[in-house]
UniProtKB/TrEMBL annotation:
Protein source organism: Nocardioides currus
Molecular function in Gene Ontology: hydrolase activity, hydrolyzing O-glycosyl compounds
Family: Belongs to the glycosyl hydrolase 3 family.
Gene Ontology process terms (BP): carbohydrate metabolic process; peptidoglycan turnover
Name the record gives this protein: Glycoside hydrolase
PANTHER family on file: BETA-HEXOSAMINIDASE-RELATED, GLYCOSIDE HYDROLASE FAMILY 3 DOMAIN PROTEIN
Pfam families recorded: Glyco_hydro_3 (PF00933)
Keywords, comma-separated and alphabetical: Glycosidase, Hydrolase
Keyword Electron transport: no
Amino acid sequence: MSAEVERLALAVQLASFAGTSLPDDWARLLEEGLGGICLFGSNTTGDVKGLTDAIRAVAPSAVIATDEEGGDVTRLHYASGSPHLGAAALGAADDLDLTRATGAMIGTALADCGVDLDLGPVADVNSNPDNPVIGTRSFGSDPAHVARHVVAWVEGLQSAGVAACLKHFPGHGDTATDSHLALPLLPVTTDVLESRELVPFRAAVEAGAAAVMTSHIVVTALDDQLPATLSPAVLGTLRTLGFDGVIVSDALDMAGASEGRGIPEAAVLSLAAGADLLCIGPDKESGLVRDVQAAIVTAVADGRLTEERLADAARRIEKLPRGAGRPAAYDLDGQLAGARAALRFDGDLPDLTGAQLVRVETEPNIAVGAVPWGLDAPVVEAGSVFGGPVVVQARDAHRHPATLALLADLAARGTVVLVDYGWPGELPLAVPRIVTHGGSQPSYAVVEDVLRAQGWHP
């Protein structure tokens, strides 16, 4: 097999190592033509600009990407929580200028750190309130509303010189399974897909989004066998929307893509289906990149993957728009105003003089990770007894039976207020609730203001 195929088999990979400095073996991969590096939480707790400078010194044209959605999903602020509102809060505030400005501020922060591809925004319509992986990452449950905000966010981000990547095509919002852990099924008709899932993607493609990320879900209206990431029918549908940019796979280490077949085989199938840039997943050994490279080279030799398709993918990556943009200064007042506008109050808040603030810990989905959230407070345990009002902080309380049982027990014995930083699903019990539509530093600040106004003091 030619040296060119060997190079191309590296050029289509967006891979990730563990740690905050560039390992020697990864530097060699970059020197040989590795397409790019995706930064995850384990990479961004140190000097991010120093790390990206080190990558650029070895491979000036390599793509450097990360997931910076604002709100619950942040990599630049993994140790502290995002200073930017997330999608659901922006959707609830429903100010397109604010959404556009937030995208621009995030783009500026990324550009300042040397990142040129943002794996965002989420263009999924969160039509299932029990969705365990999208939720507050979505701008809402109405397709047209989501489309307007996705377009505004893309416009803002790309105005700062950072490429946007819509996700998760063709739509992960009506699922009840986390594709990190299993393979979700989307059993909707073509008409539903056209009138709901595809609406934001079509709008943002027309607005010039540079890239689109696939989803690891089976969309029965298009392909009842293969997940979208591996399906020529699904990825072909994306091209029929007029999209001519880079198709990025969601992380191939996720169960929805590689369970039962392995990451190298998933990479080959995804390329053959029409994907261009293969996201491998976080904290990998360099040997996995070599394994994927070898699988791609073998697939070309065996005729399962054409060299033309491989070269086409690499050309698209090379054309990914990157460059200087218009920097946007961080606007704290604007973010706080948006956070206030996003608040929803279910029921009347009681007097909270002497109230105890607590939190309920539940396992976050893998996309969110271990990012700090909420106001500082002890974790509440079942059976806890309090001498006055209790303010319980939780995320997606409606999805967690143990949280609901705890709230019911506390409400039966005293005054309880719920602060829910998750998706505002229906509660089966009547307690006053403050809904923030996601977590972020501005959201926590306005919640503290509300609680203080009701008499609470830390």
